[in-house]
């Protein structure tokens, strides 16, 4: 096939429907490869996207969708099905159901679960291929190189190293994954990736927030400064039958990564209705698939006449007691077992609190128990229990605030204690008042762990405030003491209301339980209008004097210590 003239992309224009306040946004996880059951790395990707999706909804930022699903084509699945004595469709149906079940159990608020074996997706892929072909981005040529079956791709020499096996034989392996590669030569369709080096560099220079965190943005810039060879995007049908055939060429199968990446358009109704949403898309991906999402995918989109996604959020991996998760080591962690052991909200909190996107993070049972018990059961749950206990709040109401006991000051720094409030109480109140904006900023910068760190610090400060003033020692029959006692409780419950509201994207069930106990109605749980302690600023508080919700018991039960060192994967 002769090379046709390639139409390079014009400057990107953002569709009117995706601009400004109230705009639409697609949040997405990767679609997960259906050759094995889910593990906590998959769950972590989904939780990050879910927390961003929930936070956006609570901000009232406009319509949003969250897509996830399973990637069901390719040689790995073809081989895994053969090894399991089943067919690829049967294997994919079983594994896809496990992912759907895992994400449903973990309260992932997905609006679309796509499978690449669905007709709607196959039609979208064929249309996308035709767009590439029509615009001169493809040609047929002989390709040879090192092919990695596990990664479903050809790897350049720069991404390979040698490893000696137990028999002393040297093998070429991927530097990134350690998977073995084999020299392969075949006639394939080639994508003119080399033609997009300059457009990709310009896209990133013009959009410094396109890839977060910053180290991954810099990594992609480095890649784009190297040679960018054309990309093989099909396989011979004789080698790979389980995949989408190339339109009008039954001898070739579309490369699994091209197939998989188009899922972000398929869920939006490509090629008919995607324009209402695209390119307002934020992809959450693991660092191992960064090249596919930050180099190949934007280039393919440009070649098809579409804009790249707005943002790509990248995260690192989870290790287990310092070791990489691997089937051979038997340390692959099962999310179903984790949800049973730590509760859904407990494990959600741990992964989002401890997961730092820039670096690999470590899982082990004792760490989960310590963090969840300390921050959810003791600090947050204990505070709610103490401030609503019948002995200290016998009327079971949201008590009144006294400006006399806690007068407003313009500058708390260096201020002597006024009323009954101590100087450090003013510093604490300022910290809580600034929390909603801090949290919003951290979510926007893909630093959910920092948002949770700030919330945990404020919870500790609130416990310190409560402990410092010892309301249980105050005499409710004394009018002056009662004013101060009620003020302490009012401030504490206001803090808990803020924490419950801000924690909804992370621990939805626990946050709902907390807010229901405080009698905060569903329509009062948004983040955009969240204010703290309005009475301190001379404004009315809608909760003051309100009857609290029913006591549903302990907010979060402490986890028992376990003798086991890890949660073993349950056999399928």
UniProtKB/TrEMBL annotation:
Alphabetized UniProt keyword annotations: Aminoacyl-tRNA synthetase, ATP-binding, Ligase, Mitochondrion, Nucleotide-binding, Protein biosynthesis, Transit peptide
Domain (Methionyl/Leucyl tRNA synthetase): residue spans on this chain: 26-387
Span of domain Methionyl-tRNA synthetase anticodon-binding: 438-521
Entry EC no(s): 6.1.1.10
Compartment(s): Mitochondrion matrix
Name under which the protein is recorded: Methionine--tRNA ligase, mitochondrial
Gene Ontology molecular function terms on file: ATP binding; methionine-tRNA ligase activity
Keyword Transit peptide in annotation: yes
GO BP terms: methionyl-tRNA aminoacylation
Family: Belongs to the class-I aminoacyl-tRNA synthetase family.
InterPro entries, alphabetized: Anticodon_Met, Met-tRNA_synth, Met-tRNA_synth_2, Methionyl/Leucyl_tRNA_Synth, MetRS_core, Rossmann-like_a/b/a_fold, tRNAsynth_Ia_anticodon-bd
Xref: CDD domains: Anticodon_Ia_Met, MetRS_core
A Gene Ontology cellular-component term: mitochondrial matrix
Reaction equation(s) it catalyzes: tRNA(Met) + L-methionine + ATP = L-methionyl-tRNA(Met) + AMP + diphosphate
């Amino acid at each position: 096939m002769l090379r046709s003239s390639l139409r390079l992309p014009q400057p990107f224009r953002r569709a009117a429907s995706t601009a400004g306040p109230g705009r639409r946004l697609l949040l997405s996880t990767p679609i997960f490869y259906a050759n094995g059951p889910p593990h906590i790395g998959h769950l972590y990707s989904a939780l990050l996207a879910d927390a961003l999706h929930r936070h956006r909804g609570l901000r009232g930022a406009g319509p949003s969708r969250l897509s996830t699903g399973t990637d069901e084509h390719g040689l790995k699945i073809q081989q895994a099905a053969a090894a399991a004595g089943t067919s690829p469709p049967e294997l994919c149906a079983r594994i896809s159901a496990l992912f759907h079940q895992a994400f449903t159990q973990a309260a992932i608020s997905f609006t679309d679960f796509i499978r690449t074996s669905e007709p709607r997706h196959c039609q979208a892929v064929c249309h996308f291929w035709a767009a590439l072909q029509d615009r001169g981005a493809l040609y047929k040529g002989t390709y040879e190189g090192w092919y990695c079956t596990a990664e479903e791709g050809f790897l350049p020499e720069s991404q390979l190293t040698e490893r000696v096996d137990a028999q002393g034989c040297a093998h070429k392996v991927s530097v990134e994954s350690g998977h073995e590669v084999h020299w392969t030569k075949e006639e394939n369709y080639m994508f003119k990736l080399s033609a997009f080096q300059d457009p990709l560099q310009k896209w990133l220079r013009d959009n410094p927030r396109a890839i977060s965190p910053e180290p991954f943005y810099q990594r992609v810039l480095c890649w784009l400064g190297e040679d960018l060879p054309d990309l093989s995007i099909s396989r011979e049908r004789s080698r790979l039958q389980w995949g989408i055939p190339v339109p009008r060429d039954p001898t070739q199968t579309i490369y699994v990564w091209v197939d998989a990446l188009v899922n972000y358009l398929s869920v939006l109704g490509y090629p008919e209705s995607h324009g209402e949403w695209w390119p307002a898309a934020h992809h959450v991906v693991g660092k191992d698939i960064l090249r596919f999402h930050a180099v190949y995918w934007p280039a393919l989109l440009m070649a098809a006449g579409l804009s790249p996604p707005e943002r790509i959020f990248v995260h690192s991996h989870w290790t287990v007691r310092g070791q990489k998760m691997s089937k051979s080591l038997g340390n692959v962690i099962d999310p179903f077992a984790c949800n049973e052991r730590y509760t859904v909200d407990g494990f959600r909190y741990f992964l989002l609190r401890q997961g730092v996107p820039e670096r690999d993070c470590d899982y082990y049972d004792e760490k989960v128990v310590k963090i969840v018990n300390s921050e959810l059961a003791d600090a947050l749950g204990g505070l709610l229990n103490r401030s609503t206990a019948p002995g200290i709040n016998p009327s079971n109401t949201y008590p009144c605030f006294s400006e006399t006991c806690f007068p407003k000051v313009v500058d708390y720094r260096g201020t002597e204690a006024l009323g009954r409030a101590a100087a450090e109480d003013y510093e604490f109140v300022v910290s809580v008042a600034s929390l909603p904006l801090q949290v919003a900023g951290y979510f926007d910068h893909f630093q959910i762990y920092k948002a949770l760190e700030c919330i945990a610090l404020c919870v500790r400060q609130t416990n310190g405030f409560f402990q410092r003033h010892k309301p249980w020692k105050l005499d409710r029959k004394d009018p002056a003491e009662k004013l101060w006692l009620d003020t302490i409780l009012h401030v504490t419950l206001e803090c808990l209301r803020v924490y419950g509201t801000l924690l909804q994207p992370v621990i939805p069930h626990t946050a709902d339980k907390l807010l229901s106990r405080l009698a905060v109605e569903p329509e009062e749980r948004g983040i955009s209008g969240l204010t703290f302690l309005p009475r301190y600023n001379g404004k009315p508080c809608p909760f003051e004097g309100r009857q609290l919700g029913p006591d549903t018991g302990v907010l979060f039960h402490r986890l028992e210590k376990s003798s086991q060192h890890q949660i073993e994967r349950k056999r399928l």
